[in-house]
Design a protein that fits this description.
The complex is a heterodimer of chains A (about 180) and B (about 350). Chain A is α+β, with helices and mostly antiparallel strands. Chain A is about 25% helix and about 10% strand. Chain A has five helices and five strands. The termini of chain B are far apart. The chains are: A alpha+beta (about 180), B mainly alpha (about 350).
Chain lengths: ~180, ~350
């Protein structure tokens, strides 16, 4: 069934265009002078609580991150410092981007059975879906580091190995999330 | 000494225009940013100093000069090179006939602050503006790119359409002041209506002023009328341009904006006239006067001219960052069915009023 779209009829003043132009310019000019006044006031150390812009000056200022935002992965540790991962391959299996590759080794403790000798995540392939975190039965992988910048000049540089993933194993404090972090 | 004065005038006027045009490239970014609650370009720095992003002018020109200078293989190499120069040259040469100050007697020398004192100055400026079209059309054609060619055609169509309105609008001003010389027009705008209102063009020709500004904005091919360029999507005559050749087209836009502001100032905002300021100083209509030396008068008048031009550039940028682009049919309809009849009506009304007042 075809949808009938009601066309909005313009009034005579709106069709004359000139008045609407003046109204539009009045709006933008208002923004200009209000922001300019705030900028000038801040230049002289006044009106510190007001901002002349709604944008964040990115490398110096960060937007606060949502607590559930999926960011760079980390591997958690046991109390003795060994990785919690038991190399069950759940995350590797569930990963839709096939970016995780694990090589398992035999753990001396028969209760743990296995541990990862290699654990590589290719961040160039990762789609940050978070399925690996949900699939993990041991709470060994998390995506709560708050790190958003991980760049490299080579594809190989985007592959994060066990050491890099374990390097951020401690739980980040909530108030650290908006601070500058680089990979 | 005469030659020195001439060379000095040319250098001053040329560097003011180029300086204003390059400052406009910075101003456009910063002003639009403040209008849209942003900060704008502020990252270029020298030794950590950023001075409000002014170094972006230098950074941009270094970028333009060092980029690859590309000529399409199928294109016409000579015309492709010459086209931006034509556009830039004719945009610049129009300024020659515009006075940026009056005539002053300084230390025995007569200094007329106008590079080229033509008694048909207005026609000269308009002729040069029309010649500029060649640059855009040739640029589109020589690129051997259909999109560029279409952009060039749009540019020529738009500029010719709006030039007619522009010319017809100015006739009213010519009738009021009875001269084609821009210097004479400026002198005429120093007179007073009813003994106290400055006889500026905007008061004598309000409709003409609005029409002229609109047509002049269309001539600059900037946003409400940027159909020939459409940088963001429909792409215009300079698709195949890169490096400083593109830079010349880019600069032409800003120089045309300055030209539009300069012409509007000269025709409708009293040019270099400061209200009640005469050769000897201020003479107020309500009595009282204020003596000033000639040099001070000259500096005041040139400063007033520059301030007016700058304010108009600011307003043009406001318009550019406020209004959305016209569709091509809306553009043509506005030009031919609204602005042209209105400008002819303006001529008729001006003629009738002049007859009544004259009698």
């Amino acid at each position: 069934m075809a949808i009938k779209v009601e066309e909005k009829q313009l009034t005579l003043l709106e069709r004359l265009y000139v008045l609407e132009v003046v109204r539009g310019i009045a709006l933008t000019t208002g923004h200009f002078f209000r922001n300019m006044a705030v900028h000038i006031a801040r230049l002289f150390g006044l009106a510190k609580d007001k901002k002349g812009s709604t944008t964040f000056q990115y490398p110096e200022e960060r937007r606060p991150l949502a607590p559930r935002l999926r960011t760079l992965h980390r591997l958690t540790r046991r109390e003795d410092g060994a990785p919690r991962c038991v190399a069950c391959m759940m995350c590797e299996t569930v990963c839709p981007a096939h970016c995780i590759s694990i090589v398992a080794g035999e753990h001396p403790n028969p209760l743990i059975e296995k541990y990862p000798t290699r654990f590589d995540i290719d961040l160039g392939l990762c789609v940050f879906c978070g399925y690996c975190v949900e699939a993990c039965p041991e709470d060994a992988i998390r995506m709560d580091t708050g790190v958003l910048e991980f760049t490299s000049f080579s594809r190989e540089g985007m592959v994060y190995d066990l050491n890099k993933l374990l390097a951020r194993s401690e739980t980040p404090k909530p108030n650290e999330e908006s601070k500058v972090k680089t990979a | 000494m005469e030659y020195a004065i001439d060379v000095g005038k040319v250098l001053f006027w040329f560097s003011s225009i180029m300086g204003l045009a390059s400052i406009l490239t910075w101003m456009e970014r910063k002003q639009s940013a403040v209008m849209q609650d942003r900060i704008g370009a502020n990252r270029a720095d020298i030794f950590g100093f950023r001075i409000l992003g002014l170094f972006h002018i230098i950074a941009d020109s270094i970028k333009m000069f060092t980029k690859q200078d590309f000529v399409p293989a199928q294109g016409n190499r000579i015309l492709h090179t010459v086209a931006p120069m034509i556009a830039l040259f004719f945009a610049l040469v129009g300024f020659a006939a515009v006075p940026f100050g009056g005539t002053y007697e300084i230390a025995g020398y007569t200094v007329s602050l106008q590079v080229l004192d033509l008694n048909v100055g207005l026609l000269f400026v308009f002729a040069m503006m029309s010649m500029g079209i060649y640059g855009f059309v040739l640029g589109g054609w020589a690129s051997a790119n259909n999109y560029a060619l279409l952009g060039g055609l749009r540019a020529s169509g738009q500029m010719i359409s709006y030039e007619i309105t522009m010319g017809a609008t100015v006739i009213g001003t010519i009738m009021v002041y009875g001269t084609l010389s821009l210097q004479q027009m400026n002198i005429a705008q120093g007179e007073l209506l009813f003994g106290w209102i400055p006889a500026w063009g905007i008061l004598l020709q309000p409709l003409g002023c609005i029409l002229f500004v609109t047509a002049a904005l269309a001539e600059t091919k900037r946003v409400p009328f940027d159909v020939p360029e459409g940088e963001s999507e429909i792409i215009g005559y300079f698709v195949e341009y890169s490096g400083m050749r593109f830079g010349m087209f880019f600069l032409t836009d800003f120089i045309e904006t300055v030209l539009a502001a300069v012409l509007t100032t000269t025709l409708f905002f009293g040019g270099w006239q400061v209200p009640y300021l005469y050769a000897g100083g201020f003479e107020f209509p309500w009595g009282g006067s204020f003596e000033l030396p000639v040099v001070a008068v000259m500096l005041l008048q040139v400063g007033a001219f520059m301030a007016k031009v700058f304010t108009l550039c600011f307003i043009f940028l406001l318009i550019r960052w406020t209004l959305p682009r016209f569709r091509w049919d809306q553009l043509m309809r506005l030009g031919w069915t609204i602005m042209l009849p209105l400008s002819i009506l303006n001529i008729v009304v001006t003629g009738v009023v002049l007859l009544i007042v004259g009698n």
